Amino acid sequence: MIKNSETIDEFLARHSDDVEEAVRTAAAAEIVPRFRRLAAHEVDEKSGPHDLVTDADRRAELHLTEALGALLPGSAVVGEEAVHANPLSYEAIRGEAPVWIVDPVDGTRQFVHGDDGFCTLVALAQGGVVHASWTYAPARGQLAVAVRGGGAYLDGKRLFAGPPEPGRDLRVATSHPDYTTEEQKLALLGLRTSGVAPRPCGSAGLEYLAVARGESDATAFSWEAAWDHAAGLLLVEEAGGAHLTVTGEPFRITGGNDLPFTAARDAATARRIAALLAGGGA
Predict the structure, then answer these.
(1) Domains and CATH numbers, the chain
(2) Which of 70, 196, 247, 263 is a Cys-bridge partner for 243, taking CB atoms 3.0 to 4.6 Å apart?
(3) pLDDT in tens, 129-140
(4) Residue 20 to residues 24, 26, 137: CA-CA distances in angstroms?
């Protein structure tokens, strides 16, 4: 817990390993045992057939809510499933208290289909600033950690995204058209140009990790849910990357962003993708 006037940075210096352990334990207890073993009654639809939730999502989020809250008394937890049940709980992100932002299974569709491209995302924020994040892909045995000002690491190895290779098409993961407005579809058409190779995204958290590793060049996303973006955006920043909305401003986890937005492996690529999105199909 934060003691007296201890800052979040001081808390993280003492408890980052405890957070990592909480994430690993929740996945081991609630997610991994259900991977490729889900029964039909353990899978439900939320808003439609492409928006799934499983017992693994629900139980892992409850596990993390209890564990993270115990580590940092007085903090709030904003989890995807809790917000689905009570949308007003999302407002904690805009408050001044420390807040844990949790996506228990990012890439639920992949998880349901037995694909290993899913992860657990946890970020710690305060006053709209993300201070640390954990991206855990249990089926791949990968854990990425980022601390603001302290770098990004994958399994203990420092990540540096670096600029894209000259002369190669930019690899950009984009929102699926089913989840975009007509205006956003038009903006995404701006990526259909020479020198850019857009493709539909998978798990947002793993797409951000691919950018931080330099395996992908950028994302172009059209939704704001903080549990999908908070962890990955810090990971990309600390690996040397940048993020911009379609109007050229950094993305804010508190909302009110002009969409779509991009996260890229370097600032020049972020500016290029944001400019193409601003130009749309014109």
Answers:
(1) 8-158 (3.30.540.10), 170-279 (3.40.190.80)
(2) 263
(3) 999 999 999 999
(4) 6, 10, 12
